[in-house]
UniProtKB/TrEMBL annotation:
This is Cytochrome b561 domain-containing protein At2g30890-like. Keywords: Electron transport, Heme, Iron, Membrane, Metal-binding, Transmembrane, Transmembrane helix, Transport. The chain crosses the membrane at residues 62-81, 93-117, 129-148, 160-182, 194-214. It comes from Durio zibethinus. It is a multi-pass membrane protein. It comes from the Eukaryota.
């Protein structure tokens, strides 16, 4: 009963967020037209707008990094660690770490998408914006499959597991790629160097991949002691 209630709450939260995300589309097109006009016709205010836009771009990038570059990998590592965990208490903790990190990841990605819709000129003429739209749809589809998780041993569990794993893998890979393309778009927009951030991101992703691959080896090493 508690599991069902949790699923209903999660599903309701998803529906509510979808409604919130749809609302900005109503006024976003007119806002973009006005903002374009103000950028081209009023050069005196361009410097002030640039500072505001710079903050919004930076915040957008941070939200998407926290979502795709941190919380999503943490959730994947947690659920992978639970595959061979025999202690019921640790298994429950790892599952909740996975669930909470994925929910927070979806919420932060949603916040970043709302910022993009409301504040940026989304002409979809670059890889970052196009990939972001596809990624956002896959994120919500992945969240929905997580909410509708069937019981262990029930019919369709294997198909659900494969679909959930496939979507999660796609989100992880596309998310990391989109962070890199976002850094490139940031450099083109601001002409600021992204070398340091690229190195830091690459080091972080490399560490996560190393931990992911080392988990099976660590279990093998422990079994030989």
């Amino acid at each position: 009963m508690q599991v069902l209630a949790g699923k209903l709450v999660s599903f309701t939260m998803c529906i509510g967020l979808i409604i919130i995300l749809v609302l900005p589309f109503v006024s976003s097109s007119q806002a973009h037209v006005k903002s374009i006009g103000s950028h081209t016709n009023n050069k005196g205010n361009n410097h002030k707008v640039s500072h505001k836009l710079m903050f919004e771009i930076t915040l957008h990038g941070f939200l998407l990094w926290a979502s795709m570059g941190f919380l999503m990998p943490v959730g994947i590592l947690a659920i992978r660690m639970s595959n061979r965990e025999e202690c019921g208490r640790r298994l429950k903790i790892l599952f909740y770490v996975h669930a909470v990190s994925q929910i927070l990841s979806v919420l932060l990605a949603s916040a970043g998408a709302v910022m993009s819709i409301k504040n940026f000129n989304n002409s979809f003429n670059n890889h970052h914006q196009r990939l972001g739209v596809a990624l956002y749809g896959i994120i919500w589809l992945q969240a929905l499959t997580g909410v509708l998780r069937p019981w262990r041993g029930s019919k369709g569990r294997s198909a659900w597991f494969f679909a959930h794993w496939l979507l999660g893998t796609a989100v992880s890979i596309l998310g990391v790629i989109n962070i890199y393309t976002g850094l490139g778009a940031y450099h083109e927009k601001t002409s600021r160097s992204i070398k340091l951030w690229t190195i830091v991101l690459t080091a972080e992703i490399s560490l996560i991949v190393f931990i992911y691959l080392f988990q099976d080896k660590w279990l093998y090493i422990q079994s030989k002691e």
